[in-house]
Specification:
This protein is an alpha+beta fold and 424 residues long. It contains 13 helices and twelve strands. 26% of the residues are buried.
Length: 424
């Protein structure tokens, strides 16, 4: 049982929307609640615990440090002045006094200003460093905010809720950044002007913070929905058994059986007889709001022991850890809603496919990899350097876009006619 509580005391919980920079407003809020008979007994991070009692003119003072970081001398100073500590938060420490004549713990205005100014400078430096680090790590996402349409196109193969989340995150981050800076400036100005906070003033900050946290919880709910809702609406088969995938037919894309028919007969027999556990084969079909049909065939033959291989039956297969002698074949066929979606999605997907294998696609590479092919709107071939020698072929015709990622003895350029014939 906390100080100020009795066995039959009626308890009440209230959401605390105030941030540390709002501590002067928070003090007036708590004092206003005390006048209404709600006395604070425990301060959590967002939820405060009160007991219902007789209205009183209780005074509160808040220090922007958790109790463990406040020295014993400071605590004794408050107690000697008639202030009692309240159990609670990891972020701040609250003292209260029912004595209207209890002196302020700070001996003068100058020492009070210096105390809070030291905290302000320290936290402001931490805030700036954190923002710079986050901005650097998520620089691509930030650039997406400047061109929201490109963000939508780059995520065309994803569930619509993921697209919405990406469109909301950066504007909200900028809004949160502006809000935090404004609160720091307000805190600084109040220290300098020594202007007292009014009840009307705290209510304005209270309403704004409620709106702010409503946005936070809404975006959090969308993020949770992204985890719960699968990125694709359906899948042909979720089995990891290679044999099950052999029955699927798709005449719109070049299956490995057409790409290398002789080798395929050997591979197919090995799959049927379970003779080679290093063969991973899958075929999947999914769709999204902007791309109604996404087909993906994947074949991987690796020399790695089975227990050291990651699950390579995912939509985007990471074969960059395979040995140079292994064979990998991935073909993606995207049938978008229109040619514009296919064109813009391809521009982003090409970069993602190549960089997924640790190779940076420069502007020069984008120019030199493109070649003309009669009947196609776009054709490009790229071969990565290093041990893997991954080959990439990107083809587009109207609303259809095809990406082929291959590692093996065959030169993809010699097979362009085969792949193009399926699109034309």
């Amino acid at each position: 049982m906390r100080r100020g509580e009795t066995m039959d005391a009626k308890k009440k919980y209230k959401f605390n929307p105030f941030m540390l920079q709002d501590l002067f407003y928070e003090q007036i809020w708590l004092e206003d609640l005390a006048k209404k008979g709600l006395l604070l007994t425990e301060n959590g991070s967002l939820l405060f615990k009160f007991v219902v009692n007789e209205p009183t003119n209780r005074r509160y003072r808040i220090l922007p440090y958790r109790q463990g970081k406040i020295s014993d001398e400071e605590k004794l100073l408050y107690e000697s002045c008639g202030w009692k500590i309240i159990y609670g938060s990891l972020y701040s420490t609250i003292f209260y006094s029912d004595d209207s004549d209890a002196p302020e713990p700070f001996s003068d205005i100058l020492s009070k200003k210096q105390y809070y100014m030291n905290w302000l400078i320290h936290t402001l430096i931490q805030f700036i460093v954190a923002i710079c680090l986050i901005a650097y790590i998520n620089r691509r996402l930030f650039l997406g905010f400047l061109t929201p349409s490109e963000t939508v196109y780059s995520l065309a193969d994803q569930n619509m809720i993921i697209i919405v989340l990406n469109l909301l995150v950066i504007p909200f981050v900028i809004f949160a950044l502006a809000t935090t800076i404004a609160k720091y400036l307000n805190f600084f100005c109040r220290l300098r002007s020594e202007k007292a906070v009014t009840i009307k003033g705290y209510k304005g900050v209270y309403r704004f913070n409620i709106f702010y946290y409503t946005l936070v919880f809404a975006i959090f709910a969308i993020a949770v929905a992204c985890i719960i809702v699968p990125p694709a609406s359906f899948e042909s088969d979720s089995s990891s058994d290679n044999i099950k995938y052999l029955k699927y037919r798709n005449k719109e894309m070049v299956r490995y059986s057409e790409f290398a028919p002789t080798e395929w007969q050997v591979i197919r027999d090995a799959i049927l007889k379970h003779e080679d556990t290093n063969i991973i084969y899958s075929f999947k079909e999914t769709h999204s709001a902007l791309i109604p049909r996404i087909s993906h065939e994947s074949l991987s033959i690796s020399d790695e022991p089975e227990d050291e291989r990651a699950d390579k039956t995912d939509d985007k297969i990471d074969t960059k850890t395979a040995s140079p002698d292994s064979i990998s074949y991935d073909i993606y066929l995207y049938k978008a809603r229109n040619a514009n979606v296919a064109k813009h999605f391809m521009a982003h997907d090409m970069v993602n496919q190549v960089e997924g294998f640790g190779t940076t696609l420069s502007k020069r590479d984008k120019r030199t990899m493109q070649f003309n092919y009669k009947g196609l709107d776009y054709a490009a071939y790229f071969k990565s350097s290093g041990e893997l020698q991954m080959q990439f072929l990107f083809l587009r015709k109207d609303n259809k876009y095809e990406a082929i990622i291959y590692s093996g003895p065959v030169d993809l350029r010699a097979k362009v006619d085969l792949f193009a014939s399926k699109l034309l």
